[in-house]
């Protein structure tokens, strides 16, 4: 029988990371759309991201009719960005850490102005194929600004989880990196990743063996009677 996971971070009890959670007051809203199958992943980081950023929401499913239905309020799609999964055409010179691209994957000249005006950002949580499923099953995402990242670090996953691309990072890392740049607070990234680091540390640590109760001595054959009383 499996033990119930932690009700807060949703990790198995021996991998609970709640002690490292330090909620961050982010101005730009973070919306995480999680593929249902990803919810069962031990190494998933969507719930951690939701816990780390106070101004956030985590929704599990495959499709939603629109962003208004998710948030329960009116929205201006031009002020919402979504991390883009499609191909990006690289321009000449150094690539910006965060940029906005058009439908053809071309960097927009007014990226900085668009990013400065964002009300919220959307991150799709799941494997590469699951994230693409979420993208195509929610056509309203096409109304949002398409954001691409050029992170200057490698994912903490390392060898713990196989990723399809060398520059792939976890949902938490992508969200934290993006918000740290949008809010001009680089320290947000390291602070947000503390629970993730703890998760990987606990995962690599040997699990203590359960202490079993002492076994009762085996009962031998009854002694033979010598006929005396």
From TrEMBL:
**Region spans: Disordered:** 207-229
Q: Could you tell me the keywords of this UniProt record?
A: S-adenosyl-L-methionine, Transferase, tRNA processing
Q: Where is the composition biased (Low complexity)?
A: 217-229
Domain (DTW): give its ranges: 2-208
Q: Which domain of life is it from?
A: Bacteria
**Example of a GO MF term:** tRNA-uridine aminocarboxypropyltransferase activity
Task: Name the enzyme's class.
Answer: transferase
Q: Which processes are annotated in GO (biological process)?
A: tRNA processing
Instruction: Enumerate the SMART domains for this protein.
Output: DTW
Family according to the record: Belongs to the TDD superfamily. DTWD2 family.
Question: What's the protein called, per UniProt?
Answer: tRNA-uridine aminocarboxypropyltransferase
Q: What is the lineage of its organism?
A: Bacteria, Pseudomonadati, Pseudomonadota, Alphaproteobacteria, Acetobacterales
């Amino acid at each position: 029988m499996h033990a119930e996971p932690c009700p807060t971070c949703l990790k198995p009890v021996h991998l609970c990371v709640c002690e490292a959670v330090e909620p961050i007051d982010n101005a730009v809203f973070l919306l995480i759309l999680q593929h249902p199958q990803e919810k069962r992943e031990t190494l998933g980081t969507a719930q951690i991201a939701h816990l780390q950023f106070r101004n956030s929401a985590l929704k599990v499913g495959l499709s939603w009719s629109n962003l208004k239905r998710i948030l329960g309020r009116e929205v201006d799609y031009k002020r919402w960005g979504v991390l883009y999964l499609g191909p990006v055409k690289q321009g000449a010179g150094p690539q910006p850490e965060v940029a906005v691209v058009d439908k053809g994957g071309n960097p927009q000249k007014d990226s900085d102005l668009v990013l400065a005006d964002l009300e919220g950002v959307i991150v799709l949580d799941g494997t590469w194929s699951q994230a693409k499923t979420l993208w195509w099953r929610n056509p309203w995402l096409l109304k949002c600004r398409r954001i691409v990242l050029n992170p200057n670090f490698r994912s903490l996953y390392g060898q713990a989880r196989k990723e399809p691309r060398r520059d792939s990072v976890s949902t938490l890392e992508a969200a934290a990196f993006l918000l740290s740049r949008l809010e001009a607070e680089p320290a947000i990234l390291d602070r947000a990743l503390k629970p993730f680091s703890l998760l990987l540390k606990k995962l690599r640590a040997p699990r203590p063996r359960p202490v079993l109760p002492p076994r009762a001595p085996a009962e031998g054959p009854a002694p033979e009677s010598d006929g005396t009383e």
